[in-house]
Amino acid sequence: MKRRVTQGRPNRPDVRPRGQGTMAQDGYSQALSGTGNTMNQGRSRSIRQGRNLPEVRADNLSVVVEALQKLQPISRSALADATGLTAASITHMVNELTAFDLLVEVPSNERQVGRRPTLLSFNRQRGQLIGIEVSRTRIHAIRSDFSGQALAHLERPFRPTASVKKGLTAIGDVIAELIDPLLPLLGIGVGIPGPVNSTLGIVIEPPNFGKWRNVSLADALSERFGVPCWLDDDAKAAAYGERWYGAGRHEETLLYISLRSGVGAGLIVGDRVYRGAHELAGEIGHTTIHVDGPLCECGNRGCLETLVSIPAIMQEARRLGLDIAEPGDLHRLALAGDTVAQNIKDRVYLYLLAALVNAVNHYDPAVIVLGGQLVRSWPDLTATLARNVKGRSFGYLSQDVRVVESLLAADASALGAVAIAIHHILRDPGQTLPDTPVTGLHIDGPELRAP
Fold first, then answer.
1. Domains of the chain, start order
2. Whole-model pTM?
3. Which residue intervals make up region (Disordered) (predicted)?
4. Residues ≥6 apart with Cβ < 8 Å to 226
């Protein structure tokens, strides 16, 4: 069966957000710097903005990279067929990627009349990328090659409430430990609880994250390791990971929902992360589900996060007299016939179902991907919601939308951070790719400093 890949378009490319240095907001917002608010604020424009040739080139390069990820080893002619790009465009882009030593050519083993075609694959010795997910309890890191293939994993506990300086050092130490000293480091991607300013690489002020306020995390890591670093909200990074490497590889419109200590989401529309005017799109955890419900940290009442997050579930279970240590315990009690545990689960599913039906009607995604600790702790969660969404959403949408479990599981945000780094490198390989190995240049350099 022929696998579907995104098609390249000379005039309206499908792939990649615009911006410099990080996943950016398609040019409709600006970053505010200084000690005050660093959120992006929208600015109105009376004229729709066009796309310049370098951006078109980067978009089509991204299409070629996606096709190579799925189909390698592949010939140039097959690559042109898969992407919809002309043979001349493929030749130009393959030559560019080869010039940066990102591709290798090998002869085909197929028997055929005439000259055997040359096949293209990623050069796994070209270098490594590091993708990091920073949560309220852990640092989860992945080392990958340029195709996004995970080569190594590393996980360490993390306490953001200790101090910003210690947190920055801990993140840097995990990266230093994971790096292969024999390969050049090409870039670093980070997924971290929002809100963030992805354009400037700043962590603004995540809830329950200690004194992390307006922390220039991307600059700190770039200074220590001597390579570019990009960051994004962890749920948006996970959405990007699922789009490129996971459950949404064949879809251009995807909604990823993260269910763990908080509830977040990332929306992919037309192969781009949708951010909104202030990078707050996807805050599904702060949509009102129960108008008279519990008070949320955001100041509203009845937010989804106050009803279905793991802390909220654990609090309700203990209030009702259940002695449990984690959400998996609640699931096991329900399986054993405990009616209190089952009622708690049923109530959580009712709230989640309302949120998913709203999401289907608002965004019309092709697929909703559910991830996070709660999904992994309750094996029946995804199937239950998928079954009940049908018939509850608007018209035929409920029959077409798929609700699936994350394929990347705990790796979603970290692999998404890798994808973010890869796609930014493709915007300007000449500026971002090192000519010689750089790992170790700054590993033992100055300590990361808090602003």
1. 29-122 (1.10.10.10), 128-237+412-432 (3.30.420.40), 250-407 (3.30.420.40)
2. 0.81
3. 1-51
4. 185, 438, 441, 442
